[in-house]
Amino acid sequence: METSQIRAIVRGRVQGVYFRASTREEAQKLGLRGYAKNLADGSVEVVAEGPEDALKQLVDYLHRGPAHARVDQVQWAEAFGLEAPDPFGVR
Protein backbone atom coordinates (compact mmCIF):
# COMPACT_ATOMS: atom_id res chain seq x y z
CA MET A 1 0.00 0.00 0.00
CA GLU A 2 1.43 3.35 -1.03
CA THR A 3 1.55 6.02 1.65
CA SER A 4 1.86 9.78 1.58
CA GLN A 5 2.65 12.32 4.25
CA ILE A 6 1.23 15.76 5.06
CA ARG A 7 2.05 18.57 7.46
CA ALA A 8 -0.78 20.91 8.47
CA ILE A 9 -1.01 24.04 10.59
CA VAL A 10 -4.45 24.67 12.08
CA ARG A 11 -5.28 28.19 13.31
CA GLY A 12 -8.17 29.50 15.37
CA ARG A 13 -9.34 28.48 18.83
CA VAL A 14 -7.55 25.14 18.70
CA GLN A 15 -5.66 24.94 21.99
CA GLY A 16 -7.37 23.97 25.24
CA VAL A 17 -10.43 22.60 23.41
CA TYR A 18 -9.48 18.90 23.02
CA PHE A 19 -8.21 19.50 19.47
CA ARG A 20 -5.02 17.42 19.65
CA ALA A 21 -6.66 14.47 21.42
CA SER A 22 -9.64 14.42 19.07
CA THR A 23 -7.29 14.61 16.08
CA ARG A 24 -5.40 11.63 17.51
CA GLU A 25 -8.66 9.67 17.84
CA GLU A 26 -9.67 10.51 14.27
CA ALA A 27 -6.23 9.66 12.87
CA GLN A 28 -6.12 6.35 14.71
CA LYS A 29 -9.58 5.43 13.36
CA LEU A 30 -8.23 6.17 9.87
CA GLY A 31 -5.11 4.05 10.45
CA LEU A 32 -2.69 6.98 10.20
CA ARG A 33 0.64 7.52 11.94
CA GLY A 34 1.98 10.88 13.11
CA TYR A 35 1.25 13.47 15.77
CA ALA A 36 -0.58 16.64 16.74
CA LYS A 37 1.38 19.31 18.63
CA ASN A 38 0.59 22.74 20.09
CA LEU A 39 2.77 25.54 18.74
CA ALA A 40 3.81 28.66 20.64
CA ASP A 41 1.71 30.95 18.41
CA GLY A 42 -1.55 29.21 19.47
CA SER A 43 -1.85 27.00 16.40
CA VAL A 44 -1.65 23.21 16.17
CA GLU A 45 0.78 21.33 13.93
CA VAL A 46 -0.36 17.98 12.54
CA VAL A 47 1.96 15.55 10.77
CA ALA A 48 0.24 12.48 9.36
CA GLU A 49 1.27 9.60 7.16
CA GLY A 50 -0.82 6.91 5.48
CA PRO A 51 -3.04 6.22 2.46
CA GLU A 52 -4.05 9.35 0.51
CA ASP A 53 -7.79 8.79 0.99
CA ALA A 54 -7.34 8.59 4.77
CA LEU A 55 -5.20 11.75 4.74
CA LYS A 56 -7.94 13.59 2.83
CA GLN A 57 -10.47 12.50 5.46
CA LEU A 58 -8.18 13.78 8.22
CA VAL A 59 -7.78 17.15 6.47
CA ASP A 60 -11.59 17.38 6.25
CA TYR A 61 -11.73 16.70 10.00
CA LEU A 62 -9.09 19.39 10.69
CA HIS A 63 -11.39 21.96 9.08
CA ARG A 64 -14.09 21.08 11.67
CA GLY A 65 -12.29 19.91 14.78
CA PRO A 66 -14.07 19.02 18.03
CA ALA A 67 -17.22 20.76 19.24
CA HIS A 68 -15.55 23.58 21.23
CA ALA A 69 -12.92 24.44 18.63
CA ARG A 70 -13.17 27.25 16.11
CA VAL A 71 -11.05 26.56 13.05
CA ASP A 72 -10.19 29.72 11.13
CA GLN A 73 -7.57 28.33 8.75
CA VAL A 74 -5.94 25.04 7.78
CA GLN A 75 -2.74 25.26 5.75
CA TRP A 76 -1.44 21.90 4.62
CA ALA A 77 1.01 20.51 2.13
CA GLU A 78 2.50 17.20 1.15
CA ALA A 79 5.58 16.47 3.24
CA PHE A 80 8.50 14.10 2.93
CA GLY A 81 10.68 12.46 5.54
CA LEU A 82 9.13 13.93 8.68
CA GLU A 83 8.93 11.79 11.80
CA ALA A 84 5.50 10.11 11.91
CA PRO A 85 5.26 7.91 15.02
CA ASP A 86 2.96 4.91 15.18
CA PRO A 87 0.52 5.02 16.84
CA PHE A 88 -0.54 8.60 16.13
CA GLY A 89 0.22 10.65 19.23
CA VAL A 90 -0.14 13.96 21.00
CA ARG A 91 2.91 16.08 21.79
UniProtKB/TrEMBL annotation:
Q: Where is the signal peptide?
A: none
UniProt key word Hydrolase? yes
Q: Does the keyword Hydrolase apply?
A: yes
| Acylphosphatase-like domain location | 5-91
Matches recorded under InterPro entries? Acylphosphatase, Acylphosphatase-like_dom, Acylphosphatase-like_dom_sf, Acylphosphatase_CS
Q: Which reaction does it catalyse?
A: an acyl phosphate + H2O = a carboxylate + phosphate + H(+)
Give GO MF terms, alphabetically.
acylphosphatase activity
Tell me where the transmembrane regions lie.
none
EC number(s) per entry: 3.6.1.7
Where's the active site on this chain?
R20, N38
Instruction: Kindly state which keywords UniProt assigns to this record, in alphabetical order.
Output: Hydrolase
User: Which class of enzymes does this protein belong to?
Assistant: hydrolase
Family the UniProt entry places it in: Belongs to the acylphosphatase family.
What PANTHER family has UniProt attached to this entry?
ACYLPHOSPHATASE (PTHR47268:SF4)
What is this protein's name? Acylphosphatase
Q: Which organism is it from?
A: Eiseniibacteriota bacterium
Designated gene of the protein: yccX
